[in-house]
Design a protein that fits this description.
The structure holds two protein chains of two kinds.
Chain A: E1 4-12, E2 23-26, E3 31-34, E4 40-45, E5 48-55, E6 62-68, E7 77-79, H1 83-86, H2 98-101, E8 107-111, H3 112-115, H4 127-130, E9 137-138, E10 148-149, E11 157-161, E12 164-165, E13 170-171, E14 176-177, E15 184-190, E16 204-210, E17 219-224, E18 229-237, E19 239-252, H5 254-258, E20 268-280, E21 286-301, E22 316-332, E23 337-354, E24 361-379, E25 383-403, E26 412-413, E27 417-431, E28 436-450, E29 453-458, E30 469-475, E31 480-498, E32 501-512, E33 514-517, E34 528-531, E35 539-552, E36 557-574, E37 590-606, E38 611-625, E39 641-642, E40 649-660, E41 663-672, E42 676-677, E43 682-686, E44 689-693, E45 700-701, E46 705-715, E47 725-733, E48 743-747, E49 755-762, E50 766-774
Parallel strand pairs in A: 1-7, 11-16
Antiparallel strand pairs in A: 1-4, 2-3, 2-5, 5-6, 8-15, 9-10, 11-12, 13-14, 15-16, 17-18, 17-50, 18-19, 19-20, 20-21, 21-22, 22-23, 23-24, 24-25, 25-26, 25-27, 27-28, 28-31, 29-30, 31-32, 32-35, 33-34, 35-36, 36-37, 37-38, 38-39, 38-40, 40-41, 41-46, 42-45, 43-44, 46-47, 47-50, 48-49
Chain B: H1 2-14, E1 15-21, E2 32-39, E3 46-51, E4 68-73, E5 78-85, E6 88-91, E7 103-109, E8 115-118, E9 121-122, E10 131-140, E11 147-158, E12 166-176, E13 179-186, E14 194-201, E15 207-211, E16 217-220, E17 228-238, E18 244-254, H2 256-270, E19 287-289, E20 297-304, E21 306-314, E22 346-347
Classes of the chains: A mainly beta, B mainly beta.
InterPro entries (chain B): DUF4249
Protein name (chain B): DUF4249 domain-containing protein
Organism (chain B): Arsenicibacter rosenii
Chain lengths: 775, 356
Amino acid sequence: MPSQVISGYVNEKETGKPVPGTTIFIQERRQGVTTDREGFYSVTLPAGTYTLSASHIGYLRFQQKITLPPNLFLNNISLSQDTQLLEEVTVRTEAPDQQVKQVALGVTQLPIRNLVKMPALLGEVDVVRSLLMLPGVTTVGEGATGINVRGGSIDQNLVLLDDMPIYNSSHLMGFFSVFNPDAVRDVTLQKGSLPARYGGRTAAVLDVRTKEPDAEKLRISGGVGVVSNRLGIEGPAGTRKVTFLADARLAVNSFLFRLAPFNIRDTKARFYDVTTKVKYLPDERNTFYASLYASNDKLLFSSDSLLSVDVAATRTGFDYQTTNGSLKWLFAVNKRLTISLTGVLSRYRSATSVPDSGNAFRLQAELLSKTGKAELIYQARHHRVSAGLQATYYSLLPNTLTPGPVSNLNPVRLASEQGLEAAVFAEDEINISSTMAVVAGIRYSQFLYLGPAEIRTYLPDKPRRPEYIQERHVIGDGGIVSQNGGPEPRLAFRWSLKPDRSLKFSYTKSRQYLQLVTNTTAALPTSRWKLSDKYIKPQLSDQVSGGYFHNAGENTWEISAELYYRWNHNAIDYRDGAKLLLNNTPETELLQGRGRAYGLEVMVKKSKGFLTGWASYAYTRTELLINGPLPIDQVNNGAWYPANYDKPHAVNLLGIYRPSRTFTCSANFTYSTGRPMTVPYAKGQLYGVPFPIYLDRNQQRIPDYHRLDVSFTWEKNPAKKTNWWYSWNFALYNVYARKNAFSVFYKFNSYAESTANKLSIFGSVIPSLTYNFKL
Amino acid sequence: MKVVTVFLLILLITVQCVTPFYPDVQTLKPGLVIDGLVTDQPGRNRVALSFTAEYTQYALNLLVRGATVLVKDNDGTEVTFNETAPGYYEPKTSSWQGETGKSYTLYITLSDGRRFQSTAETLLPATPMDTAYTEYTEKIKPGTLAYDKGFDVYVDVKDPADIKNYYRWTWVHYEPIVYCDVVTVPACPGCQSSSDFSRNCCETYCWDIIRYFSPINIASDQAVNGNRISRQPVLRAPHASTTVYYVEIEQFSLTEQAYQYLYTLNDLIKNTGGLFDAAPATIKGNVSAVDQGNEQVFGLFSASSMVVRPLLIDRSTVSALPNVVYHPPPLPPPGACVSCRESAFRTTKPPRWWRF
């Protein structure tokens, strides 16, 4: 019987482009061929009736019945793109109905896949700044370090990278986050109910998790951007039992500043960070992790304006490093019980330095924490119990001044601080019925401030100022100077009205024994950390929150509304003109009072389809009351006043549109009320120089903030079968070039009208181009 | 990469901009501002009184006239200050001077009867100035191709180890002048504005007195106690001529409170709203109202010991050409010479260390 031939081209339906590498399969004969570079195929068959299928990853499978003869010399096939695959944008590590089903409130998990699609400043994917698109998360301004969650200060957030605390989450003073997007798997922000295993901070927990290393093959990835360059490697180390990942990021920005305005032209800046992880799986029951993280920043400014030490200098250097290491062992005792042991060492070091010979010095501060944690998780049918112990030893060297070789400065070493924070915790998630669930937990923490330390007694009825020190005495090494602590109950309750909607309520109490003390608008990397001691009482917060959660359209739409109120006890603010650096008695500059934060957060999220994204609105208030017995111990005459980061209204819109597998565009818009500012009441003149007269704090506001960003990403077509994957990203930050205010300040003039001036950090649209690759 | 560079250029030229802004104006009843100083030098004691103004106001000339000002020391000795210029009070006997170790209290009674009193301020001894020296530098003026040529003046001070010391530096420059008056003519018949017509020469030697209008220049010995305070900048003398530049550098001792006050004041004046500027602060001086405790009073009364050191900068040693200062030619032929009128800004008396 003569052979029959069937041949033709396979094209993409939408574009008409050939699809090379398509598998053409004749089912009846189990015979297959693949198309060549032009998408051409040819099969020789005996006469008969066959089922031909054409398949290619990323396209819908095509099938046709054919009868031979006659010869089919041009049987062209068009393949449609598989839109299901496009939804990988929304691939998530959580169930689609998570927000309705989970008991906790105020939890948002963002996988890195989504974060990289969001427009980023200068193309630097920023894990921390991306969170600003969530309701209830704000910042004092562009370039400021940290985030303010539900009206908390930046140090009230516990920032963890794989269990390791990060004490400064910013590179370049505050412009970029320290997390390398190539190494991150996802980031979870908990701002409502806190699980009992977290403690030590009062506002929120930001938990950043790194990827699990690829066990199949060695992969190399990287990228070239305007700010930083990235390179990473991951994969099995010889055996599949040991896998590892190492991601590094380096930025040498000095050339950027050369193009900058005159006053910052001589600035030199560079940073790097390295994230590594080794995973060892000896058997099914044991998993070991070892992680190392290091980050380093170095800046040199050509003035002494940021120098807090009283010497004349022509240049000021800043450098700061985070060095973290952790070991973790997970042991599955049986199917229900898992035990984990974690040891973490975390060091944050920052320094200011002046290189001028006669006045040369280096002023360094160090915060070292050592944490040990043991936790067991027991899973039963209606219970999920977790319990454990945690102990953290802190040692803090607040300021050590080392003069240069020929310097006139005297060495200074402020007394070190040390403390032990110990906690036990237990928590049970109980499914009471099919509609009701509760998480009941308790944490008991105790903080010991340990010697050696000097104890100062201040005269009663006098303000706590250095001139009123009555006596000093010293407590020796290991002695307990002061202790504080107590229970921290946690409760969360969920009631499912229907399978797709639920009502939740929670109460969280938390205590904080370590704080960042700074009276500048944005914290400097060298800002001082301070342990709670005899004078500075630990901060305490009680938060109640409630919410309604609804998923519609088969989890396409997620709608939520949350209300919260937080009472803050022993909230910290500062005396006017407080000097905190090189201060032996920081308690004399601090004032403690009460704080309150409350608000409403509404969010509508679409997580399926070509277009995903969300719209959110938040009403957030945060106020302070510092009302000491003496007028000097009061702020605003003992009346409530808004905190620096009080920004009542905020609207965020985010849209990610992915019409094809090679192109994604996204846009976000953000609006928020301006933060409070202090306005002068009058001006006076002294020594020929006019000066402003301020009477109360934070009574007016800087102009409102709004901004639109867009981002476009072109990726290599996954249909092309090469190992080299790449993408180009072009982003525009601040599209309509609004001169958003960072602050308002006054120029006083004795012979002209004094003017208020608005300082904008970014006065223009900022474009960027980034190239990413994977091997 | 070229595209990237162009983007960066656009970006960084526009980064960090400052634009005017108009917030709501708050008002405050005018409060008294006191600039009082008692030193151990004759002729360097003064009390200047003014009122605060709304910050939108153009001029700041709300001077307090007709007040009764007196300073009392801890022995009860009083010295009355007379108003020598509007709002400017000087000791009745011009040779009066403070004494190291004594403490002084300022008493003010305004013409409307309101009374104010300072805390007692001790006149602490001053530390001698070690050296004063200059360094010639040329800096490009931002945005131009012109150079700012000048002599940076620094002082070094050996700080005594045993006590806390707080310093302040100021300076007075005497500029010899040739013309003492300008004859102006109306720009048009009957209109307000006028233009220079000619200059009148001075009958006698005459000097313009130029005082520090520089920022408040203070330091503490916190970081350097017992060592040398080195390279403390004092002023920049312009290289505008090849003649000798005459300047008297003044160094004051400060009490801790006065230092704190000036430090905060400096922060307020220098605040440019930057990322790391401290929050604006209310500054409280050491003067308060006697009858009404809640009345707002601003400013400082301080007692300082003072060291004056002359510095004669020979500007002819530098080979670079001086920056040209434009002097209009005296047209038409100069008129008759006029007298050099003695004031706070002009004098006929040669400065103490002047070399003819």
